[in-house]
Every structure is written in C-alpha cells, then in structure tokens.
Amino acid sequence: MDKLEKAGWKTIKIKGLHQESVPEAITTEFPLTLMLDGHEFATIVCSPSELEDLTIGFLASEGIIRKADEIKELQVDMYTGFAHISLHQPVQPQQFDHSSRFIGSCCGKSRQFYFKSDARVAKTVTSKLEIKVSECIMLMEDLLDSSLEFQKTGGVHSAALATSDGLLYTRSDIGRHNALDKVFGSMLRGRISAKEKLVVFSGRISSEVLLKISKMGIGLILSKSAVTDLAVQLANDLGITVIGFTRGDRMNIYTHSHRVVDLHPDLQTD
C-alpha cells in the first residue's frame, strides 16, 4: 500500500500523446459486519461514513425493524469493522431466514432473498407530492453539485431526501443500495415523515432500488440513470412515480406522471 499516500494514489494518466504521473484520489471501500443480538447477520461493503444510518436503514430494508427506537443499542467499531446491534425484542438466527451473507458494493442481493421479506414491508404509496419539470432538473443539478466525494473520485453513488423546494440531506456510498439505506436510516433516526418527499438518486433504478423506495414510503424517485422493466412494473403497481435519465434539460417519466403538474394534458399517462 506504499503507493497510497495522503495526496492520493500514484497514477499514470494518458490523454492522447500526453502522459504524466500524478496523485489520484480514490474512494475508500470498507467492509462492515453487522452483529445482530450477538449473531452475525451480514457483511456490507460500503463507504466508511454515516455507518449508523446505513445499519438502521439496512435493517429496516430487510424487515428486521420498522422504527429506529426498536433498537436498544447500536455501536459501530471503526477499528474492527463491526456494528453491534441489540434489539428490545431480540431475534434468533433462524428468524433471519438466511445464512450470514457477504453483500457486495455494487450488485445488491439476489431476487430470491428480496422476495422473502418484500411481501411484509413493501407498500403501496399514496403520496400527494406535486413537482414541476424545472424543479426536477434543479434537484438533480443540486445532487451532482453536492457530492464532493464523487467530484474527487468519481467512485460513489449519491442519494438525497428532498422536497420540491430543495435537498434536505445527501448521503454517498460506493454502493447505490447503501446510499439509499443511509437516507432511510437517517429518516428513521430523525423521525422524518415521507409525506411529500422524494428521493434524488444518481444510480440505476432496478427492482431492488424501487422496493427500497416503497419501504421508505416515498412517492417519487428521480434518477440521472436508466430504469429496468421490472422496476417500472413494480412502480406502476405500488403507486410510485419513476423518472430516469434526468440530465441537463432532459428527463423520462415512466410511471404515475400525475405528480409532475406542468405536463401537457395529452401526455399524462395516468
């Protein structure tokens, strides 16, 4: 690791005929093992920031908790890479319905595991949020401008909780699922209502991402990236507005366009 200095990793950069050696900032990858009531629950590869938010949001996404105050104690040990969680109503390993897992930073988990808990915690969203096209574009610009880690390294995803007026707070992580879990955990810790809120997101909207949004009770997700067909089908069923490819003055509205109030009436899809 002698190449990794405070100024960055010694990197050879090539652009056309020009070549130079410069220090390059690189994003940090950190394995965090969750010990739930004394039992190993999961190891998440993440960015080492807002780890309490990540832990709480992850447990809520998995259906282990619904509120932050169900946690009796939470201690994150940065030196050992363990988060120790005890609940007021302890769970046993057989209740996890899975063996301990290693969750990568990019790919999330398999559909098999998601479907085991989704029926319990995914919910239809009835948000009365209203937003304009110009506000969507402004929010995406604000998200991209706020991510200092991405500007330095290009190696993280960002997610923000927002209203139509602006971003409330932003969380970043090497894993797009982790970034959302950090937002979810912060909502639970701060007892922030999902009413008339949206999530602004830098990553692809997959079915897993869409289900997290449902569990958070959010009615609209705005992303600069693509969507998947299963995500769109789920969003349509669960009452969630999905907007993708929000870049510059462009955006694609896939579901429940009634929340975007300045669309031409002939373009409304529901």
TrEMBL record:
<dbReference type="Pfam" id="PF02634">
    <property type="entry name" value="FdhD-NarQ"/>
</dbReference>
<dbReference type="InterPro" id="IPR016193">
    <property type="entry name" value="Cytidine_deaminase-like"/>
</dbReference>
<comment type="similarity">
    <text>Belongs to the FdhD family.</text>
</comment>
<keyword id="KW-0963">Cytoplasm</keyword>
<feature type="binding site">
    <location>
        <begin position="245"/>
        <end position="250"/>
    </location>
    <ligand>
        <name>Mo-bis(molybdopterin guanine dinucleotide)</name>
    </ligand>
</feature>
<keyword id="KW-0501">Molybdenum cofactor biosynthesis</keyword>
<protein>
    <recommendedName>
        <fullName>Sulfur carrier protein FdhD</fullName>
    </recommendedName>
</protein>
<feature type="active site" description="Cysteine persulfide intermediate">
    <location>
        <position position="107"/>
    </location>
</feature>
<comment type="function">
    <text>Required for formate dehydrogenase (FDH) activity. Acts as a sulfur carrier protein that transfers sulfur from IscS to the molybdenum cofactor prior to its insertion into FDH.</text>
</comment>
<dbReference type="InterPro" id="IPR003786">
    <property type="entry name" value="FdhD"/>
</dbReference>
